[in-house]
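User: Show me an example of a complex going from sequences to structure tokens.

Assistant: Sure. Here are the input components:
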Amino acid sequence: EAGVVQSPRYKIIEKKQPVAFWCNPISGHNTLYWYLQNLGQGPELLIRYENEEAVDDSQLPKDRFSAERLKGVDSTLKIQPAELGDSAVYLCASSSPGGGNTGELFFGEGSRLTVL
Amino acid sequence: AQSVTQLDSQVPVFEEAPVELRCNYSSSVSVYLFWYVQYPNQGLQLLLKYLSGSTLVESINGFEAEFNKSQTSFHLRKPSVHISDTAEYFCAVSVAGGSNYKLTFGKGTLLTVNP
């Protein structure tokens, strides 16, 4: 079974440029998460989707960050414009129905963003 | 709100030595507790979890953790580590029986096993 796939793995951009990250969850997983991991910190939830609905986006900085999950499968996280402080690893995870409630998340390898 | 404190950012040990990675949590409600592991260049993987029942939980690769409610701790232990256990370990907490699916992670402990 294929795991959670993220791309790109690495991205270097200059500040004020836009950037987008893509995530393909495990087949059948209706819940999708985007987490932010700063250097030396644990992951922090940005947004959670149930199918195509964003049910928790309280931690998403909506002035520059946006996300979508069309058709309830793949998801894209966008930053526009990027700032130096956005340099971090962006993690995507998914869980099966009921799996998220018991902490069984499956993570991708992450997309490491460097903003110069 | 819940919080997690991992007391050691780095733990170096020699192969076949025992190890304990410490985790304390804070919550005003009942919680579920988890340990996730991140091997080099891989995504986080669930190592073990405590939901209810026996306070001692085990993983398939020899790790165990004990939920101690009075100490608000969930320390991870292994009696004899291997080189392949080198990884970053994250303790996490969520509200028991909640529907928000939100995991709160600690900052992680980097376990380095040396030959």
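The lines above are the inputs; the final block is the predicted structure for all two components together. The mean pLDDT of chain B is 93.
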